[in-house]
Amino acid sequence: MNLIVIFLSAALINNFILSQFLGICPFVGVSKKIDSAFSMGIAVTFVMVIAAMVTWLIYHLILVPFNLQILEYVAFILVIASLVQLVEMFIRKVSKPLYDALGIFLPLITTNCAILGLALNAVLNEYNFSETLIYSVGAGLGFTMALVIMAGIREELELAPIPKSFQGAAITMIVAGSLALAFMGFAGLI
Amino acid sequence: MKNKTAIQEFIKGLWEENPVLVSLLGLCPVLAVTVSAENGMAMGLATTFVLVSSSFLVSMFRKVIPNQVRIASYIVIIATFVTIADRFLAAFTPDISKSLGPFIPLIIVNCIILGRQEAFASKNNIGRSLLDALGMGVGFTLTLLVLSSIREISGSGTWFGIEIMWPSFSPWQVMILPPGAFLALGCMIAGANWINRRRKS
């Protein structure tokens, strides 16, 4: 039961993009086409789940026993950066089509604050291992959903008569604001 | 000549290459922490501190750091300064540190900082890198200050915690909730676009 609550809250109520503002850069940058938005979302979810597990293990098996919590940030970001590289090499070896689909987005994920934010949040909320896993899957799916919805709206927006000053990033922000308003409705879910 | 360009190095971050309004970098903290002017100010200053100190170090070691591992080195340097800023805020202003929450450590992945190291500090001498970093940091802080002032005044009727609206004013709750951040920033970017277009024509 607890796991379901964590999942729903990460995916909908505390949606990473629309209510926690994590991962806004890809949200603005890669949400022009539904296809690429979906690929980006899947790539982020993939790295999120692996990064959440690895950083959990590092935090609880290395940093806590040796009382090195102050190194948390440095350790996490290094782990995430090397993990992204590893995942990139692994995907290229195992599945060429997947690599071609994700290719450009993978290196970008290192500087996606959603990954580091997830790892830090899991520590902050004192989740155990299975909770961290569910939390990362939920957060990743919520991220993908927000990205795909946004891409769908932006494809329609290209035909809309938008005032000159609002074209580009400005209207994206306004649309994101309305989406965030809609997602606030999920707050009553639990 | 040199003097003049040095000043331009500083000025460009304030408006022409403003990291938030023009380059659209580092939007996550901009949206998340601007609930009150105090938070926005603290975030801006912390980011400026990290930006200036890491630009200094990166510029100093730019000939020593091998090209292949430069991004990793930059990130370690940045993460170190962020840890310092985080401990400092937690020790001296625990309230602000608490309300900024995970967004202090997330300065590490703020694209403004990594972007300036890669685009500027790794290619220029210490003095110019410092000026560039300072300009960008001040531009970032000012933008945060304006956005958080708009949100705090309209959303809770106060500015830096002081009541400034008339007594019967009923705050627009939505402005301090997540949607308000997107709406306010969208309007600010549109305003900047408008001014730039007016100045060009």
Coarse morphology of chain B: globular
Into which percentage range does the β-strand content of chain B fall? under 5%
Assembly state here?
heterodimer
Number of strands of chain A: 0
Q: What's the order of the H and E elements of chain B? A: HHHHHHHEEH
- The low-pLDDT segments of chain A are none
**C-alpha end-to-end distance of chain B:** 29 Å
Shape field of chain A: globular
Structural class of chain B: mainly alpha
Gyration radius from CA atoms of chain A, angstroms: 17 Å
Class by SSE composition of chain A: mainly alpha
Count of separate structural domains of chain A: 1
Order of helices and strands of chain A: HHHHHHHHH
Distance between the termini of chain A: 12 Å
Which pair of chains has the greatest number of interface residues, and how are they split between the two chains? A-B, 44 and 43 residues
Detail the topology: elements first, then pairings.
The complex is a heterodimer of chains A (190) and B (201).
Chain A: H1 2-13, H2 24-29, H3 34-63, H4 72-94, H5 96-102, H6 105-108, H7 113-124, H8 129-157, H9 169-184
Chain B: H1 2-11, H2 27-33, H3 37-60, H4 70-92, H5 94-100, H6 111-121, H7 126-156, E1 158-159, E2 162-163, H8 178-200
